[in-house]
Amino acid sequence: MPKHEFFVDMTCEGCSNAVSRVLHRLGGVQFDIDLPNKKVCIDSEHNIDTLLETLKKTGKNASYLGEKSAQ
């Protein structure tokens, strides 16, 4: 599955919980949230636009950073 990295303007645990909620609701995703660096890495077959729109449902600024290479 492609792994995509997004910036999400999260400032607290509540923000990261909101991101978790919308991604779980979308389904078909595995993700890691890096709250200190305001990044979300998502493994998903969904397209980038769908993922970005889903992240924006939190009311936070979100942007696509690029594909994350497997390490």
TrEMBL record:
Residues annotated as transmembrane: none
This protein's UniProt keywords: Chaperone, Copper, Copper transport, Ion transport, Metal-binding, Transport
InterPro entries for the chain: Copper_transport_ATOX1-like, HMA_dom, HMA_dom_sf
GO biological process: copper ion transport
Top-rank taxon: Eukaryota
Gene Ontology molecular function: metal ion binding
Record-linked Pfam families: HMA
SUPFAM superfamilies in alphabetical order: HMA, heavy metal-associated domain
HMA domain mapped to chain residues: 1-63
Quaternary structure (record): Homodimer. Interacts with ATP7B. Interacts with ATP7A. Interacts (via dimer form) with SLC31A1 (via C-terminal domain); this interaction improves ATOX1 stability and controls intracellular Cu(I) levels.
Family: Belongs to the ATX1 family.
Record function comment: Binds and deliver cytosolic copper to the copper ATPase proteins. May be important in cellular antioxidant defense.
UniProt protein name: Copper transport protein ATOX1
Organism from which the protein derives: Grus japonensis
Organism placement in taxonomy: Eukaryota, Metazoa, Chordata, Craniata, Vertebrata
